[in-house]
Specification:
By secondary structure, this protein is an alpha+beta fold. The chain has a single domain (2-177), classed as Cyclic Phosphodiesterase, Chain: A (Alpha-Beta Complex). The protein contains 4 helices and 9 strands, in the order E-H-E-E-H-E-E-H-E-H-E-E-E. The chain has a 5-stranded antiparallel sheet, sandwiched between helices. A 4-stranded antiparallel sheet has the order 3-1-8-9. A hairpin with a 2-residue loop joins strand 8 (155-164) and strand 9. The longest helix has 14 residues, at 11-24. The two termini are 29 Å apart. The mean pLDDT is 93.
Length: 179
Amino acid sequence: MRLFIGIAPPKDIKNYLFKIQNNLKDNTLVKMRLEGKTQLHLTLKFLGEIPEEDIGLIKKELREIKYFPFKINLSNIGTFASGGTLTVLWIGLKPKGEIIELQKQIDQATLKYGSIKLENPHITIGRIKSVKNKKKFLDKINNFKTEDLNFIVDEFCLYKSKLTKDGARYEILERYLLK
């Protein structure tokens, strides 16, 4: 089973991200597959293909994590590129400190399944297929002002990820409360 650990933003944040997606989608500039509103999340650690018999152990280890709720803010919008080709449209999260500390604990609890490189916390909002006018698209992103919205992270989740022809579909297997 393909698994990852992440944070699901609350409904109001997902609604706002959906508005951003629609404001930035411009078929004259870019061809992009937007992440579905229910699919929006912050990945803390991707575990990959995990044998069924290991899932109970992973759940047990994640239940042992002790961390406190914290507030994060939506930040800037950016892109990832591979070989100069834009591939992902994302929105950043800040401050990074609490997210990275939670990631470290999750990473330690699941080291058997590899270690992660701590990176810029973000929520992927679109997968870029092709760009017709890179300069105009990047200008549009750089000039886009996000609202100063925040939310309390009071849980993280173990997700199952199923690949389909329309992209990955996620299902929450278990939630872990922060207290």
